[in-house]
Amino acid sequence: MASIVTGMTTAQISVLTSTQLAGLTTADYVALTTSQLQALTTTQIGFLGTSQIAALTTGQVASITTNQVVALGTNQVQALSTAQVAALS
């Protein structure tokens, strides 16, 4: 079964509400392309839970923007694996 985010444009991703983001499964977050992930606003990044952050691949983490990294909260940063942290550099 395909993820709900498959086929969504970056414009559609960038306007998802906190409720809609909360409704996405871990598999949906893993299915986000790097372009879709980069389309998330800093506000949207703040809505991501620790399990959603932990589910991101190292490739996805490597693609997030500096502004998105700055928007991560303490709990979100603590949820990053060693490999994910290494991907930020």
Give a written overview of the molecule.
The model has no long low-confidence stretch (mean pLDDT 94). 64% of the residues lie in helices and 0% in strands. It is globular. The termini are far apart. The longest helix is centred in the first third of the chain and has 6 residues. It is mostly helical and 89 residues long. It has ten helices and no strands.
Short description:
This protein has 89 residues and is mostly helical.
CA-CA gap between termini: 34 Å
Count, helices? 10
Secondary structure category: mainly alpha
Largest sheet: none
Estimated radius of gyration: 12 Å
The helix/strand series, from N terminus to C terminus, equals HHHHHHHHHH
Helix content, binned percent: 55-70%
> Which descriptor suits the 3D outline?
globular
Low-confidence region ranges? none
Rounded mean pLDDT is 94
Strand content: under 5%
